[in-house]
Every structure is written in C-alpha cells, then in structure tokens.
Design a protein that fits this description.
By secondary structure, the chain is an alpha/beta fold. It has helices spanning 7-13, 58-68, 88-94, 99-102, 107-111, 125-135, 155-162, and strands at residues 52-53, 72-76, 82-87, 119-120, 139-143, 149-154. The strands form two sheets. Strands 1-2-3 form a three-stranded mixed β-sheet. A three-stranded mixed β-sheet has the order 4-5-6. A hairpin with a 5-residue loop joins strand 2 (72-76) and strand 3.
C-alpha cells in the first residue's frame, strides 16, 4: 500500500500551489493583478470611434449612427475637443422633423446648451463609474491633455473588463487604432441593406 502524501508537500507544491483566484473587480492571473476599478480609464476605454464634426447636419449624424450601428456619437470641434455626446435615440427623434428643417440643424445644436461630463484618460475606472452615476448616463467621452478627445468609456466596457474580456477590436481591425481629428469615419462604412435600414425622416 503506497504511503500517504505528506500534507506539507501538498501545501507547498500541490497542483494549486501559487494559484490565485479572480481579484475582486479585476482579472484572474496573479497576486499582482490590479482590480478593474483601480485601473486607468485608458486601459478599458474604446478608441476606435465614430464621431461627427460639430458643424455637420443632423442627417449626417444619423447616417453615421445608422451605418456604424453605434449607440453614442461624440461631437468633435475642429481642434479635437469634444463638445458633447449624442445618443442614437435623441438623434432619431430630432430627425423626425421635416427634411427642410433638418438641413438647417447641426450636431452642435443638440449639445449646445447642456453640460458635457467627461473623464481624463488617466482617471481611475472607479472615478469614471462615479461620474456616470452622478450624471445618470452610460457613456462618457474620455479626454487627454488640452481636452482633446481620446476615446469613449461606456458601461459595457466596465462589464467587459470585469468579465476578463479584452479591449474591443472593430471587425477587420488588428487592434485599437488612434485617429487624428476630425476622425475619418465615412470611408469604409458599408451601407446597410435597404430592408434593414430604418430612416427617421417621414
């Protein structure tokens, strides 16, 4: 009959020796793993963005949302700063106006009189979550130095990071890309089939 293994040997060198479980709010993989809420926003945010210039019409804004499938659309000034964030639903409602009126309405008109909450790319994820909660929103523009738009931070990004998933990579892309401003969003966006297209214009 084989000797029973020494208990001390199991504790020191068993198959689970040195293994660590998931860090609360972080990723599994080692005792040095940083909890998600303590990580900088730049490690969680998305940088492959669809944006619209502040001077573009609402019809262009809707077209960008429709062709990209995005839920949020940062409005960008010529110097790269973000003047606001449009949501798909509000753009659809605004585009329900007569077409002749839409030709005179621009993206900046929807964000002109409201405060735009932002976070810095070096802020912690925990602080960004607090800002979203205080402003009752599910997405925040992320800025770098001088207030230039650096990315977008959403509630979905937090959930993905908590689940241990990597950063979002757009279809056909090899990784996160950093665009100059204004971002070249129109080329490469395939038109949607007519049967799937939803136009807000009556």
């Amino acid at each position: 009959m084989p000797d029973a293994p020494d208990a001390g040997a199991l504790d020191a060198g068993g198959p689970d020796a040195g293994a660590s479980g998931p860090v609360a709010g972080g990723r599994a993989g080692g005792p040095r793993a940083v909890p998600v809420l303590e990580r900088p926003v730049r490690e969680v945010m998305r940088t492959s963005l669809v944006t619209v210039a502040a001077g573009e019409t609402l019809l262009v804004a809707w077209e960008l949302l429709e062709r990209s499938g995005a839920r949020h659309l940062p409005v960008v000034l010529p110097d790269g700063r973000c003047s606001g964030l449009l949501e798909r639903a509000e753009v659809a409602v605004a585009c329900a106006a007569p077409a002749v009126t839409l030709s005179r309405r621009h993206a900046r008109d929807l964000v002109r009189y409201r405060r735009c909450a932002v976070v810095h790319r070096e802020d912690s994820v925990g602080r960004a979550v607090d800002v979203m909660d205080a402003n009752r929103c599910d997405a925040l523009p992320v800025v770098g130095d001088a207030g230039v738009l650096a990315g977008l931070f959403t509630a979905a990004d937090v959930v993905s990071a908590l689940a241990g998933h990597g950063l979002e990579v757009p279809p056909g892309g090899g990784g996160q890309r950093s665009y100059p401003f204004p971002y070249p969003v129109m080329p490469g966006l395939p038109p949607r089939p007519d049967e799937d297209r939803v136009s807000p214009v009556p």
